[in-house]
Amino acid sequence: MNQTTLIIAVAIVVVAVYIIYRFVFKKQKVNEEILHEPFHEQWRKILLQRVLYYKNLPDDKKREFEERVKLFLSEKKINGADVEVTDTDKLLVAASAVIPLFAFPRYNYPNVREVVLYPNSFDEKFQTNDEVGQRDILGMIGDGFMSGVVILSKPDLEAAFNGTRHRSNVGIHEFVHLIDKADGSVDGVPEILFTHSYSLPWIKEIKKEMKKIKSGHSDISPYALTNNAEFLAVVSEYFFDNPEKMKSRHPELYKILTEIYKQHPDDYV
Ligand SMILES: [Zn+2]
User: Fold this and answer.
1) Ligand 1 center to residue 233 CA distance, Å?
2) Cys bridge to 188: 70, 100, 201, 232, which one at CB 3.0-4.6 A?
């Protein structure tokens, strides 16, 4: 190695170390700012009014939930596409992320960097304009160049967390897809949550419940029939949004979901 090559090599190393240092430093700075602020009383009020899951938690779990919300908000950007993003919106996005993984405190969606709120539901070309065909998509997770981005319709997110129980929740739906995607494939088998030994009983349960939906003997949305991934997302919405009802109407499905998510949301109802 001659002297010039050595100087170039040293320069490259110095620049690389500087870039890594800046990246780590910047990330830590963002974390510190949000994480060290106390949880605002106003935020607490919003969660109490809108998020039943949070409202029904015992006090110590509420504090844990708040810390997880802060952690999520400290690492992810939440932006609006021609729409204002309020504190309520930010909290509802974070709640959608925290609820399904409440029993997995170490996981904070490394596959997500940004959540974009849309002013309305949209079509496959991300158009929200009424004149451009059907716009029936309420949310989606990005792929390809959009990887790491989640899109949610703001009014549908707000309707999902209106302080009452239903069986649908677009926020939880999309974050469950992201949990499913973390193992590399969106296939309805979220391997980061369970070992392979769970897969078979879960797939069997999906088939059994799909039969009931097809024959009209189920109150689960027929959208669950689309494929296994949609099945997981749809029944998870029901599981977290209306656990008591799901437990009484679908006890076996409910039980296997408690094993997958390692939580019993009906405990705090
Ligand atoms: Zn879906």
Assistant:
1) 6
2) 232
Res 28: pLDDT: 46
Residue at 26 is within a domain = no
Taking Cα atoms as reference points, which of 141, 148, 140 lies closest to residue 75?
148
Quick: pLDDT tens for 72-93: 999 999 999 999 999 999 999 9
Instruction: Report how far ligand 1's centroid is from the alpha carbon of 230 (Å).
Output: 5
Note the pLDDT tens digit of each residue in 180-207.
999 999 999 999 998 667 889 999 999 9
Residue 95 maps to a domain: yes
- 269 falls in which pLDDT band (50, 70, 90)? confident
Distance 249 CA to ligand 1 centre (A): 23
The neighbour count for residue 232, using CB atoms within 10 Å, is 25
Give the tokens for residue 150: 């989640």
Q: Is residue 1 part of a domain?
A: no
Examine the pLDDT at 26 and tell me if it is beyond 70. Answer: no
Task: Give me ligand 1 centre to Cα 13, in Å.
Answer: 44
CATH number at residue 80: 3.40.390.10
The domain tally of the chain equals: 1
Q: Which domain holds residue 99?
A: 41-268
Tell me whether residue 15 is in a domain. no
**Nearest-angstrom CA–CA distance, 37 and 159:** 29
CB half-sphere exposure, 202, CA atoms < 13 A: 23
